[in-house]
């Protein structure tokens, strides 16, 4: 990149884009210069709130802006392939909110576009960039809990049923697995990095037929994982990595601010980050560094990891 700072545009000013934009005040190597929305009023309100100088009423106008280096795609899952592809073809780097696509075939199509255009593409698994998650990885790598025997991860909130809303509408790729369950799978992959020998799935459908609650049991030769996601109820929302010598506990793991290390019942180490925002700035800053260095792929969230998450979600969904 020619510039000292990466110039960003946001595509789709929804709830998660608000958190992403809020955290730009903590990003040192990037600046937020544009937002695109199908709704003129919504786009202008978003731009005013976050001090964004340019507002576009079409996504095509954002793609065409020569003063935008990178685009954050924050629309519903089923639009990700089309919009990320269009941004890449327009010469933009793309950070696409998770899940990056809704099935493995779509991901492969998108990766071909990234390769053909020689542009940067990353799935927005922001959790992997949080200091508390990276500290937990460090503890595991240092052998502080010994060999990992169990991963237990759950993520659930009661979501009021709306047949036409994004969460429950099958036409918008609704369901708990794609929306929240991907985070539990991401934790399992991060700390085990291997496919299960066998697995079992229990799914409870909503009235629209999408998965309202999913429990996944992954079995390996030397360990096991229990992963649960739900629109029905508030779950503890912890990830526990349990080893022969102790365990690591991560509350609200998908947005983790802290983690604790235990030996039997005694907490022997504790980490808390001192961030000022939601935590999206860690991901954004790393993408900026990648782009400034000329990299086309993230080392923390490489394409291979996105492939694995897509494979696993498809594997689980086949059991529904």
Automatic annotation (TrEMBL):
First and last residue of the signal peptide: none
Domain of life: Bacteria
Alphabetic keyword roster: Oxidoreductase
Domain Gfo/Idh/MocA-like oxidoreductase N-terminal, first and last residues per copy: 6-124
InterPro entries xref list: Gfo/Idh/MocA-like_OxRdtase_N, Gfo/Idh/MocA_domain, GFO_IDH_MocA-like_dom, NAD(P)-bd_dom_sf
Transmembrane portions of the chain: none
Residue ranges constituting the GFO/IDH/MocA-like oxidoreductase domain according to the UniProt record: 133-248
A Pfam family this chain is assigned to: GFO_IDH_MocA_C3
Family listed: Belongs to the Gfo/Idh/MocA family.
Entry protein name: Gfo/Idh/MocA family oxidoreductase
Organism taxonomic ancestry: Bacteria, Pseudomonadati, Bacteroidota, Cytophagia, Cytophagales
């Amino acid at each position: 990149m020619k510039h000292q700072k990466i110039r960003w545009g946001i595509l789709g000013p929804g709830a998660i884009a608000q958190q992403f934009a809020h955290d730009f005040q903590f990003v040192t190597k990037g600046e937020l210069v544009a937002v695109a929305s199908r709704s003129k009023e919504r786009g202008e309100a978003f731009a005013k709130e976050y001090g964004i100088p340019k507002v576009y009423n079409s996504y095509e106008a954002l793609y065409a802006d020569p003063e935008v280096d990178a685009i954050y795609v924050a629309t519903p899952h089923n639009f990700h392939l089309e919009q990320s592809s269009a941004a890449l073809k327009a010469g933009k780097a793309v950070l696409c909110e998770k899940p990056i696509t809704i099935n493995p075939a779509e991901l492969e199509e998108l990766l071909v576009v990234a390769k053909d255009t020689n542009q940067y593409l990353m799935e927005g698994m922001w959790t992997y960039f949080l200091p508390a998650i990276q500290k937990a990885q460090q503890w595991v790598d240092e052998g502080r809990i010994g060999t990992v025997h169990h991963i237990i991860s759950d993520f659930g909130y009661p979501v009021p049923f709306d047949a036409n809303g994004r969460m429950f509408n099958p036409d918008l790729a609704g369901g708990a697995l794609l929306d929240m369950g991907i985070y539990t799978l991401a934790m399992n992959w991060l700390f085990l990095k291997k496919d299960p020998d066998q697995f079992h799935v229990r799914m409870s459908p909503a009235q629209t037929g999408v998965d309202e609650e999913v429990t996944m049991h992954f079995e390996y030769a030397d360990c096991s994982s229990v992963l649960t996601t739900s629109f029905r109820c508030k779950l503890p929302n912890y990830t526990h990595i349990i080893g022969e010598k102790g365990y690591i506990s991560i509350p609200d793991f998908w947005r983790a601010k802290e983690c604790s290390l235990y030996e039997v019942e005694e907490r022997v180490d504790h980490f808390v980050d001192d961030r000022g925002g939601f935590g999206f700035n860690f991901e954004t800053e790393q993408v900026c560094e990648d782009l400034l260095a000329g990299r086309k792929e993230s080392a923390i969230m490489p394409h291979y990891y996105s492939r694995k998450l897509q494979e696993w979600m498809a594997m689980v969904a086949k059991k529904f």
